[in-house]
Amino acid sequence: MKKLLLILSSTVVLGLLAACASGGVAPAQPTEAPPPAEAPAEEVEAGALPDLGGQEIRVAVENAYPPFNFIDEETNEPVGWDYDAWREICDRLNCEPVFVESAWEGLFEAMAAGQYDVAADGITITEERDKIVDYSIPYLEYGQVILVSANEQTIVDKDSLISSDTTVGVQLGTTNEKTAIELVGEDRIKSFDTFDTPVVALMSGDVDAVIIDKVAAVGFMGANQGKLKMAADVTSGELLGFVYPPDSELIEPVNAALESMQADGTLKQLNDEWFEPKS
Fold first, then answer.
1. Each residue's pLDDT tens digit, 127-148
2. DSSP states of 130-150
3. Which of 70, 169, 190, 260 is most buried, judging by how many CB atoms fall within 10 Å of its CB?
4. In the CATH scheme, what is the code of domain 144-233?
5. Rounded Cα distance, 37 and 1, in Å
6. Domain locations in the chain?
7. Parallel, antiparallel, or unpaired for β 134-135 and 140-142?
8. What kind of fold does domain 54-141+240-279 have according to CATH?
9. Which letter does DSSP use for residue 228 in this model?
10. Whole-structure pTM value
11. Rounded to 10 degrees, what is the CA torsion of 118, 57, 19, 241?
C-alpha cells in the first residue's frame, strides 16, 4: 500500500482530501417519506469515523525537533505539534497515544520491523523511504531553509552560501543532509546525530549555517529569541506524513481522522499554532 499515490496536489496539502464518496449502496426509494428530523442511516454511517476500541498506539518521537516534539524547559514535559495532533487523532478514533522517545538513526528500519505503530517526527515523504515503510496522507507542505546566526552578514542567500568556504551543519540521514551535500559538497558538511545539535553548533560558532526544514527553523528561532534568522529558502513543495510499518491497519483510520481535522479547521488551527512565526 503505497501512499505516495495519494499525493495529487502540492499546492494546498490536504485540500485534496476534502470530499470522498461514501461508496455505500444507495437506499431503495421509500414508499413513505421518512420523518424530517431523522437522517438516513447510510448518511450517519458515512460521516462516522472508525472506532479503534481504546487501542494503544505506540508513537515514536525524537523529542528534539521543535516545534514537532521537544521538552519544554519550564515544565520539563514533552510538548509540540506531534503531541497535540496525535491526542486529537485518538480523541476522534477512540485510541490512546503512547509516546515513545526514539533516536532518528535506525528509525526507518525499526518502523519496517514493526517496533512502533507509527512515527511522528516531521518526516518527509520520499520515494526511497516509501520502499521500506508506508506513509499517511500528507499533513503539511514545507520547504528547507538556510538558518544562520542573527548577526550573520556574509551568508544572505543560497549563492553566497555556495560560493563561500563556510561549514554547514545538518542532521545525519535526513533530507536536509542530502540538500546540503548537493549545494556545497560533502567536505563542507558537519553531520550530527540529533536534530537539535546542528543548531546548538551554529549558536556556539562551530558551524556557520544549518540547512533545516522551515517549520523547524521557526521552532528554533522561537526558542532562541534574537539569536537566529533565516537567510534564504533552498527548496519548496516537500510533504510531511506519518510513517507506518508496511500495510499497517492504522493507515486508513488515521487518514480518515486527518481528513476530518482538515474539514473542520482543526488541522489549520494546529498548524497555525505551532508552525507560524511568533511576533
1. 999 999 999 999 999 999 999 9
2. HTTSEE----EEE-EEEEEET
3. 169
4. 3.40.190.10
5. 41
6. 54-141+240-279, 144-233
7. unpaired
8. D-Maltodextrin-Binding Protein; domain 2 (3.40.190)
9. E
10. 0.72
11. -20
